[in-house]
Design brief:
Domain Fibrinogen C-terminal: 518-570
InterPro entries: ConA-like_dom_sf, EGF, FA58C, Fibrinogen-like_C, Fibrinogen_a/b/g_C_dom, Galactose-bd-like_sf, Laminin_G, Neurexin-related_CASP
Radius of gyration: 37 Å
Oligomer: single chain
Largest sheet: 8 strands, antiparallel
Family: Belongs to the neurexin family.
Keywords: Disulfide bond, EGF-like domain, Membrane, Repeat, Signal, Transmembrane, Transmembrane helix
Structural class: mainly beta
Shape: globular
Strand content: 35-45%
Number of strands: 83
Domain F5/8 type C: 1-118
């Protein structure tokens, strides 16, 4: 219902005088009301209206708070239109203030207002810091399994107990303010358990009302503060809260009991205090016997605290004339709160002059600086007290006895000694000063001040606002507009949020994610993806849901076969012997994997096939042989469900693999072990039903008879394939599309996919809301556009290619939008960024279905193929949806549309009319399918230097149109190479910049690998040693170095390290081998550089540049400098002879090797030896046959079998030309290209 109309009869509405400075319209509702909406309109019959305003509210009319809602408060756009704005959360207040921000440029401000809401019943209690309310129970103690407590409070103090109760057995509950945040202590008969509610941290001492609602049922607790809810469970097994005698509100009346805390009593007001439905304040007002009021009053006093906000870091100031001091000298004191680590707090001229005194916030701490003739004569800091934490801090500045003292929060003061007495001259400038009055080298103060005193006299800011005292600029009076930009924490994946007055930043260190909000995983989603990027077998971190919530986990990727296997081990890899177990006391083994249950589920569901081998060797130990058919042993699946099939058979059937193969020892039974003989038997099988994997527990219950024994083992979980990579759909009608549920992308979203088409344009995907939308489209044959609107107006990012994108080849697109920025990437083209507006709308509100390949209007549809569509780490099953949609078919035609990986090591498959070719220009490998290593033998004087054509930053890659934003989260290198050497020390690779930064990869004197990062020239280099063993052993070693921001991932013996947040700028060159001229090198690096490298280097990749291959195929280029002899070689063959020599040695690498598990069997040693020798002989013969077949295949030229001429000499010449073009090489002369296909 309408509460009040503000029309100003006779004038047609409110309009301020033209001479009024910062006018506002204030509404007094006469009593506290709950306001739910406001309507605004321009003045009647005039050109005066307001197009934007701030809404402030207050209980007292003195201390104001800005109403904030993401969708903004409504605006009046024309003189006749009425705009009603519903408040997303109602406010309970008496006063409203409308502060115009924008108005009709052809007229003036004009406003008519109507306020909607309802009356509000308030039961208030005022606590003075020494009082409390005691609610006494009817019985001696109260034991509850459910509690509901609700209240509202306001205070200007940072400390104070709101609620406390305790019992004799150790139970207690305490809710208190501590350093401006709310802490809940809860103990249900167990050890101390504490919960800090971070969602409301730091801003609860602002003298405004805050609501608290706590619900507890058994151990489950829900705590809501100002609409922010946190849910958690208490520790231990206790379910009831036992409190003796009483609950206290506002303080702890008798401190010192067990479980109590030496905290201050609450100083402020509480309203509508309810405990389990009982109105405690109402009982106290009616003087009921169960309530002891303890000096509590029932009207809320209003402290006369008037704050002001300094809005600008460049032009804000408050100039105040000082009243005469009672004695010589001067003094100033005030309170401040800010987030900014730097800012000018106070500046004044001293007499005798010329002297200046400045008080600054520097690095989050206070500095007092005295200047004589603009030269700093002395700097004195406070006692290390940090003041940029968002809390109120008191500051006092005094002159006495020939020194100036600075005191912060009552701590011991810091002093500046004086040669003679001084006095202030002219006005005191707070927060900054006009440029003609001072020349401060630091920004103006951004934050709040209150309780300003000069020479012991309070400064009346109301007179300042009326223009009767002092002067000011960019100042907001009567309110402290501090905002906690880390509330809620918009940094993802548990990243740490830090903030200034105008923005926030996320520290992604140790999270495994990167980006402005730590949204993007730095790891691939599967072993299959690592294989496609050119990696080899080893331990890797994979993130199965990408930017989703699961996080990365370490797995072993086995890439030695055609299939890429993901291997996850558990805690019981060795065979387990079981005796003396029965159904009453069974043997139970719980398997703990290297990944969480949710990660395991994501890996299994995203794989094409998974399996796990189980081996059960037995002697008089049955599996199923019982009269009633109930199993004697079983295993639990990933959901904890009992399973009784043992490998190789369908789920739900109590049989073993021998029954399926019809080769059981006794065909009367379905398992070998069920024959129940005194001889050893074995049931081995492979579990391959994905929905049941992995095995979580094994239970054995039949080894308690005489002579009975069982030995079992469960192999690691092994999965292959990535269902999302080649999941594709073909669109052949412009009006066709696939639809999916609405995107859940309010605060952050990333969209990635591949496409190929011959159409000039088309919409890839679109999702709309009432006003908001998000769209990715091919806007022209050579441009991809990412557009969206979250309420700030349409934002558009476009990436244009110099080559057409509708060339029927696969192209990669990734679009991301978060609350800080948006980005768009197409293939390897420069990444485009667009910074989000400050204090703009954050949430993308969508309501329609997600349309893929078209739009809801069935216009501008996409014609072509889309594959591997992933949104926020979730892969979309395009093929399944395409099977039931007209105009769309599952899969995509063409040689390059399958999962057979025709091109390897980052090679790009290009469709041809009669086959395909592999574009190896982005790969460090050569050959028809990008799988032949490019190897060169170096001697001590050899080196290859690749000079980048222009100052080039691999980290920034942004357009001139993109906004300038921090590059911290985008600094990255991706380096990979192989080497064979016996030399130590040795220089493998160096990257240098024009600013004397460098990266050096060396072998130290002991042969260990060292990676030197010198990105900050003012500090010593950071050195990482991931492999401490000797790598100068004549074997082939593969190194991969991947850095994104602060995260450094090194694969040798895989290890993750942390690095500082810096980036290479203006990269000059990359050098392999000996370095002759380079400054600023550390002594150890310099020694390795002078020794050079003796051995073989192959397959060198730096981001998207292959310098070693460029050196071999473009020797005449001005970008390539070769010193000393280079001999084409084969590192793999060179190392193979060494590996044969060392075949019997134990590997020192941490990568696991295939392990043969020998189970106990009853057989002679001779038979065992014969079998072992036979197996070894078979392995040797297989190896020889494989080498012979490989040699025949290598000598067979460029044929690719069924492709039938798809790779020809024409491809060799064309790809060379493309590679030279891509590198912008000046001289196309080539020496010997017969063995390399680019």
């Amino acid at each position: 219902m309408p509460l009040m109309d503000v029309v100003c009869p006779g004038a047609g509405g409110w309009s301020p005088m033209v001479t009024d400075q910062e006018p506002w319209l204030q509404v007094d509702l006469r009593e506290q009301m709950e306001v739910t909406a406001v309507s605004t309109q321009g003045r009647y019959d005039s050109w005066d209206w307001v197009s934007g305003f701030l809404l402030l509210y207050s209980d007292s009319g003195r201390a104001w708070k800005q109403y904030r809602q993401e969708d903004g408060v409504g605006v009046s756009l024309t003189l006749s239109a009425v705009v009603q704005s519903k408040l997303s959360h109602p406010v309970r207040t008496r006063f409203l203030r409308f502060v115009p921000l924008d108005w009709n440029p052809s007229g003036w401000m004009g406003l008519r207002v109507e306020v909607y809401g309802c009356s509000y019943k308030s039961y208030v209690a005022d606590f003075d810091g020494r009082s409390s309310l005691l609610y006494r129970f009817n019985q001696k103690s109260m034991s509850t399994v459910k509690d509901v407590i609700s209240l509202r409070f306001k205070s200007h103090q940072t400390e104070g107990v709101l609620l406390h109760g305790e019992g004799q057995r150790g139970d207690y509950i305490t809710l208190e303010l501590h350093r401006g945040r709310l802490d809940l202590y809860l103990n249900l008969g167990e050890a101390l358990w504490r919960r800090n509610i971070s969602v409301i941290e730091l801003l609860l001492d602002d003298q405004h009302w805050h609501s608290v609602h706590m619900e507890r049922f058994n151990r489950q607790v829900n705590l809501t503060v100002d609409a922010q809810t946190s849910s958690f469970q208490t520790r231990g097994d206790g379910h009831s809260l036992d409190v003796d005698y009483e609950l206290s509100f506002g303080g702890i009346p008798l401190p010192g009991k067990p479980g109590t805390f030496l905290r201050r009593n609450f100083h402020g007001c509480m309203e509508n205090l309810y405990y389990n439905g009982i109105n405690v304040v109402d009982l106290a007002k009616r003087r009921k016997p169960q309530i002891h009021s303890g000096n509590v009053t029932f009207s809320c006093s209003q402290p006369q605290l008037v704050s002001c906000t300094f809005l600008s870091s460049s032009s804000s100031f408050l100039s105040l004339p000082p009243p005469p001091p009672a004695s010589g000298g001067f003094s100033a004191r005030f309170q401040l709160r800010t987030w900014n680590p730097d800012g000018l707090l106070l500046s004044l001229q001293l007499h005798p002059g010329p002297q200046t005194l400045e008080l600054q916030v520097s690095g989050g701490r206070l500095l007092m600086i005295e200047k004589v003739l603009e030269v700093t004569s002395f700097v004195s800091s406070s006692s290390g007290h940090r003041v940029s934490d968002g809390l109120w801090h008191s500051v006092r500045l005094d002159t006495r006895n020939l020194h100036i003292s600075l005191t912060v929060d009552g701590e011991p003061s810091s002093n500046i000694e004086l040669w003679e007495p001084v006095e202030s001259r002219g006005n005191f400038f707070f927060g900054g000063c006009p440029s003609m009055n001072c020349h401060a080298q630091i920004p103006s103060f951004q934050g709040c001040m209150q309780l300003i005193f000069i020479n012991g006299q309070p400064m009346n800011l109301s007179l300042v606002q009326q223009g009767l005292l002092g002067n000011y600029n960019e100042l907001q009076l009567d309110t402290c507009s501090i905002k906690d930009r880390c509330l809620p924490n918009l940094c993802e994946h548990s990243a740490r949020c830090s903030q200034t007055w105008t923005s926030f930043s996320c520290d992604c260190s140790g999270t495994g994610y990167s980006g402005a909000t730590c949204h993007n995983s730095i790891y691939e989603s599967s072993c299959e993806a690592y294989k496609l990027s050119g990696s080899s077998s080893g331990f890797y971190f994979i993130d199965p849901d990408g930017s989703g919530p699961l996080g990365p986990t370490q797995v072993y990727c086995n890439m030695t076969e055609k299939k890429v296997w993901t291997v996850l081990s558990h805690n019981s890899s060795a065979p387990v012997t079981v005796q003396s177990s029965s159904l009453q006391k069974p043997h139970v083994m719980r398997l703990n994997y290297s990944a969480s249950a949710e990660q395991l589920r994501a890996i299994v569901s995203g794989s094409e096939q998974c399996q796990q081998e189980v081996v059960y060797s037995c002697r008089k130990s049955r599996l199923f042989n019982t009269r009633d058919g109930s199993p004697l042993s079983w295993w639990l699946d990933r959901d904890g469900e009992r399973r009784s099939y043992w490998g190789g058979f369908l789920p739900g059937v109590q049989q073993c693999s021998c029954s399926l193969e019809e080769n059981c020892v006794d065909m009367n039974y379905f398992c070998n072990c069920d024959a129940d003989t005194d001889a050893w038997a074995n049931d081995t099988g492979v579990l391959s039903y994905k929905d049941h994997l992995p095995v979580s527990q094994v239970v054995v219950g039949d080894t308690n008879r005489t002579g009975s024994m069982a030995v079992y083992s469960v192999g690691p979980l092994r999965c292959y394939g990535d269902k999302s990579i080649w999941n594709a759909a073909s669109f052949y009608q412009e009006s066709s599309y696939l639809y999916f549920p609405t995107l859940q992308a309010e605060l952050a979203s990333d969209i990635s996919f591949y496409f190929k088409t011959s159409a000039p344009s088309g919409v890839f995907l679109e999702n709309q809301g009432l006003k908001d939308f998000i769209r990715v489209e091919l806007s022209s044959p050579s441009a991809v556009t990412f557009s969206f609107d979250v309420g700030n107006g349409p934002a558009v990012l476009a990436v244009k290619s110099h080559l057409p994108l509708n060339d029927r080849q696969w192209h990669y697109v990734r679009a991301e939008r978060n609350v800080k920025e948006a980005s768009l990437q197409v293939d390897q083209l420069p990444l485009r960024f667009l910074q989000a507006p400050a204090d703009g709308h954050l949430r993308l509100r969508l309501s329609s279905q997600l349309f893929v390949g078209g739009t809801a209007s069935q216009q501008r549809g996409f014609l072509g193929c889309i594959r591997s569509l992933t949104v926020n780490g979730v892969a979309f099953d395009l093929e399944e949806r395409a099977r039931m949609t007209p105009g769309v078919s599952s899969g995509c035609p063409g040689y390059c549309s399958g999962s057979s990986s025709l091109c390897h090591n980052r090679g790009r498959c290009l469709e041809k009319s009669n086959g395909y070719v592999c574009d190896c220009s982005q790969s460090a490998y050569g050959g028809t399918t990008c799988n032949q290593e490019v190897s060169v033998s170096f001697d001590r004087e050899s080196s290859v230097t690749y000079t980048f054509q222009e100052p080039f930053s691999v980290m920034q890659n942004r357009s001139s149109q993109a906004s300038s934003v921090s590059t911290d989260s985008r600094a990255r290198e991706d380096v990979a190479f192989s080497f064979v050497t016996s030399q130590r020390p040795a220089m493998l690779l160096t990257v240098s910049t024009f600013s004397q930064q460098y990266i050096a990869v060396i072998l130290a004197r002991n042969g260990s690998l060292q990676i030197w990062y010198h990105l900050q020239t003012d500090r010593s280099p950071d050195v990482f040693s991931p492999a401490l063993n000797n790598l100068a052993d004549g074997r082939l070693h593969r190194i991969r170095i991947h850095r994104v921001g602060k995260n450094l991932y090194i694969q040798v013996s895989p290890e993750s390290c942390m690095l500082f947040n810096q980036s290479l700028i203006l990269i000059r060159s990359l050098t392999l081998g000996k370095v002759t001229r380079m400054e600023n090198l550390n002594e150890e690096v310099l020694q390795a550089a002078s020794k050079g490298f003796i051995g073989c280097l192959s397959s060198v990749q730096f981001n998207h540049v292959a310098p070693l291959k460029a050196a071999l195929t473009n020797r005449g280029s001005s970008l390539i400098t070769i010193r000393g002899p280079l001999v084409q070689s084969n590192c793999g063959a060179l190392a193979e002879s060494t590996s044969h020599t060392l075949q019997g040695e134990t590997h020192t690498s941490s990568a696991p090797l295939p392990v043969l598990i020998l189970l106990p069997v009853v057989s002679s040693g001779v038979v065992t030896a014969v079998v072992f020798i036979a197996v070894c002989a078979l392995a040797v013969i297989s190896r020889l046959l494989y080498q012979q077949r490989r040699a025949q295949r290598d000598s067979g030229g460029a044929s690719v079998g069924s492709v039938g001429g798809g790779v020809k000499d024409e491809h060799r010449h064309g790809m060379f030309t493309d590679y030279r073009t891509e590198l912008h090489l000046h001289n196309p002369v080539r020496d010997n290209v017969k063995e390399y296909y680019i």
